[in-house]
Amino acid sequence: MTTLLSLGHGYSARALARRLVPQGWRIHATTRSAEKAEALKAEGVIPHVFPGEDLSAALGEATHLLVSAGPDEAGDPMLRELGDAISARAGALDWAGYLSTTGVYGDHAGGWVDEATPLTPSTRRGRWRVAAEAEWQAIPGLPLHIFRLAGIYGPGRGPFSKVRSGKARRIVKPGQVFSRIHVEDIAQVLEASIRRPNPGAVYNLCDDDPAPPQDVIAHAAQLLSLPLPPEEDFAEAEMTPMARSFYAESKRVRNDRIKDELGVRLFHPTYREGLAALLDAAEEDAPD
Length: 288
What we know:
Elements: E1 3-7, H1 11-20, E2 26-31, H2 34-42, E3 46-49, H3 56-61, E4 64-67, H4 77-89, E5 95-101, E6 112-113, H5 124-137, E7 144-149, E8 151-153, H6 160-165, E9 170-172, E10 180-182, H7 183-195, E11 202-205, H8 213-223, E12 231-233, H9 241-245, E13 252-253, H10 256-260, H11 271-285
Parallel strand pairs: 1-2, 1-4, 2-3, 4-5, 5-7, 6-13, 7-11, 8-10, 9-12
Helix pairs in contact: 1-7, 8-11
């Protein structure tokens, strides 16, 4: 049976599972809490609370491996726990995927980057990701594919709730642009790669329209027929250190490779289609 072991089964991995489970895939997935394990079970996934549970049997069954867990200053947490076991199993896997971030490219002052751009991260999290990518690439025989994700949005991660509540802000930093990707497009790219494995490949996952963040908030307000949230100058805006760090880098990310090599056609080629789909889905789910 085709079996995926998903390490750190979060938002993007769950979207992939929703595509694979109906096709008969067996999916083992790790999570940190028993409560989340119950939710995963309801989605047709075999959950494992980890660290804690022994994953030997799940890894032994796996034909495919997906790693979503983020690194820390000590390196990749899954390799710390399972590095030897994964190395021993590497040659038996048909496909392995590692979810990284476009933050590995660093700041390009709004310029374009692609998969061949040198990795020059300017944030601590970006440097951790570069190191983690290298750790996974160093495993002999592992059929590894690296996916560098732009900012993720989708159900439960859209701007509408903040716009409706009046808490949304249009933070303006001249020249600032972000690339982003709808979670369903992440899932379709991962599935396309599984169908067309190319060990060693690196793919950027983003849509076709890098845009200033204030434009996305403004469009969400327009879709809701609500007043535009006020603009705030980045230099004077009150923000958490984490939020402010996202503005340390500005770049436009190219996505040609997922189209040319994997044949992907994005469901949501810009944030406009993505936000419209989120709003339509929310209205369909609303009680009468």
